[in-house]
Write a structure and sequence with these properties.
Layout (H helix, E strand, L loop, with lengths): L2 H10 L7 H4 L9 H16 L4 H11 L15 E2 H8 L12 E2 L5 H9 L1 H4 L6 H23 L36 H17 L6 H12 L4 H13 L6 H16 L10 H12 L10 H7 L15 H6 L3 E3 L6 E3 L6 H21 L9 H17 L3 H4 L11 E7 L16 H11 L7 H6 L3 E11 L2 E11 L11 H18 L3 E8 L9 E5 L7 H15 L5 E6 L2 E6 L5 H12 L8 E5 L3 E3 L10 H11 L3 H28 L8 H24 L1 H11 L16
Antiparallel strand pairs: 1-2, 3-4, 5-7, 5-8, 6-7, 8-12, 8-13, 9-11, 9-12, 10-11
Length: about 725
């Protein structure tokens, strides 16, 4: 790192709480209060022009790295004062500015350069008044934190209702504060605890928006439908006990999908008890959780709660406060690993709330919008990172991250089945596909039908679909799904929701089939029948998909059952042939060689193929999709929501195609079968389709279109005939 880069970083220094991201990638942080104070002294003396103070200034900067000494190896051997002067705003051609070079042992030369070029050096910092304000802010922040740490009296936070326990903060005969850790038995020990909390707050500041980001994700996944957003947030909170964030994500999606499809919820580490709580929440009753779960639930809907909420106190927060427990076998004190009592919750709440005001006055992290949940989140991620030996960034993983592993993709093509000759001149181009998607997606790119059904819906992806060299525009609806407990296969409730949505879309768009994928890491005994591959440039275009299909055909043969589909940032390659895993994996690796593709991520796919899978009699058959929908066996509320969306969708697509047919009469006619199917669905819902199949109305259309004659077919009770 060049010395002028260091000085440039100094000129941009913004005060207490800045981290390495704001002072250059080569400086590790965060900046400590002690280092900031030393820096202020050195910089102030440098502006005054004292010879040699630049050396002290640089030394102070490096001392901001807690416990890391200055190393000569951190710097290049020689630096030009011209570079320093230019960075600081000096006129290097001025006779007042003396050039030269110096090494780390001779930093006093930097002081000489500063002394001789003071009027111009300060110009690079936008004037001494701004600098003085900056230094004053550092001093003020230091005082605020000193007062907080050294306050011998128990601080009563404004946001705590002390009438609940008037003894809170009172010291017992042992000297211990009520609810405090065992070792906090004096004002000095209380101050030591607060100093550690404020240190963790600074370290974890980058993760402070944990609840904000998780709340935003819940809102986006549910399309801001309040009841569904609260069901999702509440399910995450209920199933959070004793769970890591990744495990909690699985529990939350699983419990939500069970509830939204009308199935009894059984999710979490304690599926029976936690499932009952999810069912209660889904019924519309107000959620009443424990002292940890309730604030967590409120934190996951933080956008509705002005001024913040109570902090969430779990075992990581207990460890940050240095609560310890005695090992019953050894008698030794060890890390906290159990629940907290009411007095402990109240003590921790009070301390976090008191720290909010301190953090805002001190400008910790360079911001002044700290709230209880942000303070708690920052401390939480810092302590978790330290104890797990990971980075603050990784410890900050929240419910907005890592969703691809919980995503089921429902892929459909814009152009209907070739068997029905629908809008044949237009339905194969990207313009038609874009128009269709504009009807089926909201402004954020999320599928309207999936949101209507209650699915946790991510923005859809678009790519090229391919079959035997023929490319057509394709879209993937992305909804969250969960695996079965201890398995890679999709949970039945998630599968039902995914299949019902996919079958409905296949019916309204006149598709032969609609495919779904759900990839998870394989468990023992599971087939590795899918590979997720990041491709250079992201999702391949049509030509890229042709080349990949051709490469796979060279390895496995045509019609092998190994084929690519578009996926997030690339493709997924499916093995539907039943060939051994090792043979599949080896062939895929050979096919990808030289393509710039990333390393395949192998897994188990438990997706479905919906619609007409009778290859001896292919084509669009609405009855096969109706069979898929009925087999999904959604609860009454779920099927009503999906049906309402299907009726709207069918009507909208018919109107769109009618307008296109009128505007461009020479570019393809509408299919009688698809048009009639949509008309029946839009007016009579799913029961209308069932009745039409049973009465032979839809088969009659098939015969008139394909065979040119009228026919009818009797059906048993609820038939799924050839249509």
């Amino acid at each position: 790192m060049a010395f002028n880069d260091i000085l440039n970083a100094l000129s941009q220094y913004g005060g207490l709480g800045e981290t390495r991201s704001s002072i250059g990638d080569d400086l590790s942080g965060p900046i400590t209060r002690e280092g900031a104070a030393d820096y202020a002294k050195g910089l102030g003396a440098g502006i005054a022009g004292a010879p040699g103070d630049a050396a002290g200034l640089v030394n102070a900067l490096m001392q901001m790295k807690r416990g890391v000494p200055v190393q000569a190896a951190d710097f290049e051997s020689d630096y030009g004062t011209n570079a320093i002067g230019e960075t600081m705003g000096a006129d290097v051609d001025s006779p007042q500015f003396i050039g030269g070079t110096f090494g780390m042992p001779g930093l006093e030369d930097a002081g000489r350069a500063m002394m001789l070029g003071i009027p111009r050096l300060v110009k690079g910092m936008k004037g001494t008044s701004q600098l003085a304000d900056q230094l004053g802010g550092v001093a003020k922040a230091r005082k605020v934190l000193d007062d907080y740490e050294k306050d011998v009296d128990f601080i009563q936070a404004d946001t705590i209702d002390y009438s609940i326990d008037k003894r809170l903060g009172k010291r017992m005969k042992s000297g211990k504060y009520r609810g405090a850790p065992e070792n906090v038995k004096s004002p000095q020990k209380l101050g030591k605890m607060r100093k550690e909390l404020s240190r963790l707050l600074e370290v974890g500041a980058p993760g402070r928006l944990w609840y904000d980001e998780s709340t935003q994700a819940a809102s986006e996944l549910t399309g801001a439908q309040r009841n569904k957003k609260h069901l999702f947030a509440g399910t995450n909170a209920i199933t959070s006990r004793g769970a890591s964030v990744p495990a909690n994500q699985v529990f939350g999606v699983k419990g939500y999908n069970q509830a939204i499809t009308g199935n009894p919820a059984k999710a979490g580490r304690f599926p029976n008890a936690q499932g009952e709580a999810v069912d209660e929440l889904a019924s519309g009753r107000t959620y009443h959780g424990g002292p940890k779960e309730t604030p967590f639930y409120e934190g996951l809907t933080i956008d509705e709660r002005a001024g913040g909420v109570r902090p969430t106190n779990d075992l990581w927060m207990a460890r940050a406060f240095d609560y310890q427990r005695k090992n019953p076998k050894t008698g030794e004190m060890e890390l906290w690993g159990e629940g907290l009592g009411q007095a402990q919750h109240r003590f921790m709440d009070n301390e976090i709330n008191a720290l909010v005001d301190v953090a805002n006055k001190a400008g910790i992290g360079g911001v002044s919008d700290w709230t209880p949940e942000r303070v708690q989140a920052a401390i939480w991620v810092a302590k978790k990172a330290e104890l797990e030996g990971t980075t603050v960034g990784k410890a900050s993983t929240n419910f907005s991250n890592n969703m691809e592993g919980l995503t089921s993709t429902i892929r459909y093509e814009a152009n209907p089945s070739t068997s029905i000759d629908h809008m044949s001149s237009r339905s194969t181009d990207d313009g038609y596909a874009g128009l269709v998607n504009s009807m089926l997606q909201d402004d954020a790119g999320r599928d309207r039908l999936a949101l209507q059904a209650g699915a946790l819906t991510r923005p859809s992806e678009t790519g090229a679909g391919i079959y035997e060299g023929t490319v057509s525009p394709s879209t993937g609806i992305k909804v969250l799904a969960a695996p079965q407990t201890g398995k890679a296969q999709i949970d039945p409730a998630s599968e039902s929701l995914v299949n019902a949505i996919g079958a409905t879309r296949g019916m309204t768009l006149g598709q032969d089939t609609v495919g779904t994928t759900f990839q998870r890491a394989s468990k023992a005994g599971d087939p590795r029948n899918i590979a997720r591959v990041q491709m250079e440039g992201g999702i391949p275009d049509g030509e890229g998909m042709r080349k990949l299909e051709s490469s796979l055909a060279e390895q496995f043969g045509a019609d092998s059952g190994v084929f690519p589909v578009h996926s997030e940032d690339g493709v997924q390659i499916l093995n539907e042939s039943g060939m051994p895993d090792k043979e599949f994996q080896a062939g895929v690796k050979r096919a990808l060689k030289g393509t710039g593709a990333g390393k395949p991520e192998w897994g188990t796919n438990s997706g479905s193929l919906l619609g007409n899978t009778n290859w001896d009699d292919p084509g669009f058959k609405p009855s096969t999709y109706m069979k898929n929908i009925d087999e999904a066996d959604l609860g009454d509320d779920a099927i009503k929501r999906l049906e309402a969306g299907a009726m709207d969708e069918a009507s909208t697509l018919n109107k769109m195609d009618a307008a296109l047919e009128a505007e461009y009469p020479d570019e393809g006619k509408r299919s009688e079968l698809l048009t009639r199917t949509r008309e029946i669905l839009s007016s009579g819902g799913y029961q209308g389709i069932r009745d039409a199949v049973e009465k032979g109305i839809l088969p009659a259309i098939v015969l008139s279109v394909i065979a040119g004659s009228i026919g009818s077919q009797a059906s048993q009770e609820q038939s799924y005939g050839p249509a």
